[in-house]
Amino acid sequence: MRQLRGQERAITANRQTSWSFADAFVAEDDALRWARERAREAGLPSVSPGTGGALRLLAATADAKAVAEIGTGTGVSGIYLLLGMRPDGVLTTVDLQPERQQHAKTAFRAAGFAGNRARFIPGRALDVLPRLADGGYDLVFCDGDRLEYLDYLAESLRLLRPGGLVCFEGVFADGRTVDSGAQPAEVQRIRELLRAVRESQELVPSLLPVGDGLLCAVRRG
Ligand SMILES: C[S@@+](CC[C@H](N)C(=O)[O-])C[C@H]1O[C@@H](n2cnc3c(N)ncnc32)[C@H](O)[C@@H]1O
Question: Per the confidence metrics, is the pTM higher than 0.90?
Answer without folding.
Answer: yes
